[in-house]
Design brief:
The protein is an alpha/beta fold. The chain has three domains: 117 residues, HAD superfamily/HAD-like (Rossmann fold), CATH 3.40.50; 110 residues, Rossmann fold, CATH 3.40.50; 52 residues, no CATH class. 33% of the residues lie in helices and 22% in strands. The chain has eleven helices and 19 strands. Strands 5-4-1-13-14-15 form a six-stranded parallel sheet, sandwiched between helices. Helix 4 runs parallel beside helix 5 and helix 6 packs across helix 7. The two termini are 23 Å apart. One of its GO terms (cellular component) is cytoplasm.
Length: 335
């Protein structure tokens, strides 16, 4: 599999080329409590062809059983063992420095409490219990009292570990403050920068790959700054699907550490070969679409996902060669 300017090509469907898909949840498998078109059928077909699935989420408040139940209810049959949460990754990170039985102040939901206990630690609720670490994850019930206890403990020397640093959280009403915003309150009160287990750290991906004993994993996500940045950070190829947060235009303007290896309109991209743009007469050509950067302007010819791929290749190549690219010349693209 080779490609231009960071994009890869595959002559066979991705579900054949890779043995494990590390699938993000919100924006990829579903959106809020609603199904995403083609997600169930595409994942079912990928499984039927031999690809294994692990659903990897930055959500630390829910138990794997709850996540598996929601997916199953959306016609994506899932076993809890096929779910990797940020809570589990957070607990795994704690084991790298703490001995079994160490006290951990948990700020978050039941998923994080369960994961920390399962890792062999003693869960406490007050800084006066002299915890060795603070494990912080999002839960709707987290408020000032819990954040204050975390700040007291960190100021007294406890190791601060966050399940993730997502600043925003998608809800049915729009974007709300995420765990990163709550972690920011503790950081502001203490001046201590926490360690993080969630995406974009590749910790969860590594744990999921090791659990599955996979040899050819593929990350699938909708957010460049978490899902795809984690893929790049871990050295895993990443498929960016345009059903969630980051748009096609975002992909064109992506910094090197957040660029996907593959692009797809939705999860049907798992079942298709992928062409990579090729340079011809100054244009990056993909299928019947083409793009180039000239005098700082992105010029486009064509439509669809192949145009998005060509635009990414042209823009990335120009930026990496220290050429000027005026972002106002990059339009919103549809696949």
């Amino acid at each position: 599999m080779t490609g231009a300017a960071g994009l890869l090509a595959s002559d066979v469907p991705l579900a054949t080329a890779y043995d494990l898909a590390l699938v993000d949840l919100d924006g990829v498998a579903y959106k809020g409590h609603l199904p995403i078109e083609h997600a169930s059928a595409s994942l079912t077909a990928a499984r039927s062809g031999g690809m294994r699935l692990v659903f990897v989420t930055n959500n630390a408040s829910r138990e794997p059983e709850d996540v598996a139940g929601q997916l199953t209810g959306l016609d994506i049959p899932t076993d809890p063992a096929e779910v990797m949460t940020a809570a589990q990754a957070c607990a795994a990170l704690l084991t790298t420095r703490l001995d079994p039985g160490a006290k951990v102040l948990v700020v978050g939901g039941k998923g994080l409490v369960t994961a920390v206990r399962a890792a062999g630690f003693t869960v406490v609720t007050s800084a006066d219990d002299e915890p060795d670490a603070v494990a912080q994850g999002y839960a709707p019930e987290v408020g000032w009292t819990q954040l204050a206890e975390a700040a007291y403990a960190v100021n007294r020397g406890a190791w601060h570990v966050a399940s993730n640093l997502d600043l925003s959280l998608p809800t049915a009403r729009g974007f709300a403050p995420g765990n990163g915003a709550l972690v920011g309150a503790v950081r502001s009160a203490t001046g201590v920068v926490p360690d993080s287990a969630g995406k974009p750290s590749p910790t969860m991906y590594r744990l999921a790959v090791e659990r599955a004993e996979a040899g050819r994993p593929l990350v699938i996500g909708d957010r460049l700054d978490t899902d795809l940045a984690g893929a790049r950070g871990g050295g895993y190829p990443g498929l960016h699907v345009l059903t969630g947060v980051s748009t096609a235009r975002d992909a064109v303007l992506a910094v090197p550490g957040e660029r996907p290896s593959y692009l797809g309109a939705d999860l049907r991209a798992l079942l298709e070969p992928h062409a990579a743009p090729a340079l011809a007469d100054g244009w990056y050509v993909c299928g019947t679409a083409a793009a180039r950067v000239s005098d700082g302007e992105l010029r486009l010819d064509g439509a669809g996902i192949d145009l998005v791929r060509a635009a990414c290749a042209a823009a990335w190549a120009a930026v990496d060669a220290d050429e000027t690219l005026d972002p106002t010349t990059v339009p919103e693209l549809t696949a």
